[in-house]
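Please, structure for the following, as tokens.
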Amino acid sequence: MTNCNISGVHKGIQAVRSTLTVSNDNIIDADLPFSPSEPASTIPTAIKADFGTNRSATITGNILRSCGAGIDLNQWQPASKLLVSYNDITLSTCNISFNSAGISMGFCTRGEVSANTVKPLTPSNGKGLSLSNSHDIFVNGNTFYDLFKGESGENNIGCYFLGNTAKSDISNGSLKGTAVLGFINAFSDNPYCCNSVDGLSSIGFTFDGPSTGTSFKYSQIHGQPLGLLLTESADISPQTHGKNRWFAGNGGAFHASDDDQFIFQSKFISEPALIPPFATAADIPNMPGLQWFAPQALPPGPVQPLCNCAYPQGPGGDLPRVTPDGDSLAAISGYQVGQYTDSYNWMARQRLYERLRQAPQLANTSTQIAAFYQAAESTAIGQFDAVRQGIRDLIGRDDFSREVIGQSIELLNNLSEELRLLRIDPASTELQQRIKAHQLYQETERYKSYLKAVEQQQAHEIGTLLDANAGLSVSTVAQANEKTSNRIILENSFWEGGSIVAADTNALHLIAMQCPLSGGFAVYQARGVLKILGSAQNWESVNPCAPVDNRSYKGGEKPMVSRLSVYPNPASQLITVSGFVPNELEKTFEIYTTTGQKVVQAIVKANQTSIDINIAGLRDGLYLYRSNTPNQPISVGKIVVLH
């Protein structure tokens, strides 16, 4: 589609399982007011395209306006081609309670987002780029003006951020501090190189959760209260040659942890042009705290380049990978983050193993990492990874199948268009039309035959993967969540847009409402699936962890999770749940199977601090509990039943 003008709609363009080209000065205005009580399908979106696996999408050179999302892409994993570039996107405000985004991408693999501009009509509103559950996306040269968040990413791997800018648009009259937050990287392993922030009112770069595969280099940080924040649970591993530059007017950097071992794991060695203060939550009066950032003055001689970043070689070229420097602790003893140790350590090991499997030569970094990699294949790490990778291969097919499917779809589209043009051309003959119609018929039959063979192979693979997933043993909530998520995706053929039964939707909700620090990467995956299914839930509002951008860098706040004690655990007959806060509010305590079936529900009276629950009728296994008090943080955890 080219040179079209669309306005006065909720959805400008909506495509499902389609090859899509929207380019060359289309003007799409999708900002009709909507109510939060309306279904998510009415959320205004200029361009929305879902379930594009093995297809191509080119969205370039358009002028878009929306109060929901400018461009919303889901389940392009992988795309044969996915290009979003040179779009001018304006976010209006038709519902102040909705968190709008210029570009939103979930479950996308191998694509490029380059040279787009996103700005809001209402200052300090919306996100420039929202990226979740995605792999190998090249994010290059985008500019985010006057937004609440420039880029917000969750549970992404290998997405390369090069030369992007988040800033207040001072040159066009915006006040300094109009833009609030720059780049947020949560539970993700991504290289950041030569990105800049300027004139924000809060934080330039924020890293949260296990992100040991992240690198942070050649950043240019101008004029905001805080240039860099590592939350108390953040670890992006030692950065040996960061060469990030803090310019005038910055408040430096802050690590919200007070754990000296954990701070050391996030140590930086950089070359800032100016050396601002670098503090930690361990800093107290008359004590310097722990030196987690070792600044180095610029060396004498010629001025060092601001940026020296690798660029992908050719279209679809491999993106830079992060070496596992400093990951030996993950291979040996794991990470210590208070109550989150088990799940956090599990997530760190998952990511390390995945990077080593993709690039085995990195195992030579140290003898500890080599030993970890050699042993992991036969442990739960390797077994869960095999199922996870099997699902990815199933969705994406192999390179040859993907190429054949993509070419067939393109050819069918071309033949259909040629036949349509012939039928409206008065100069065409009946014979020409019949020949073209026969070509289209032959190609359609060829495509059906190939697709049938693929589907038969796919059905076999689904059965094999379901058996392998059922055989996984679990010992943490994060593992149980991943096992449940795997089953739901496989049984419902989610990547093809299959419908999901109510029980599975409930199981996904149970996972999605957990804190990722204890629930694992499956929490973000469940949230992404529910979003595609039509949920308009803003998960930050129910996340029992303090949202990453709301954690104060002045006080090192602890996550907002209510503390309950379940004893004994494992248990066989009776459990005592204690730690309820006595107040005027009645509470609920529920126990679920790992597939989301509620098996116990108890009411906790307002003045009670503990309750006893009989679990003698439950089968042996792992269960999840949830306690909910109105207007207070949710508490979640695990219970093991052994008779």
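The radius of gyration is 26 Å. The first strand starts at residue 5 and ends at 6.
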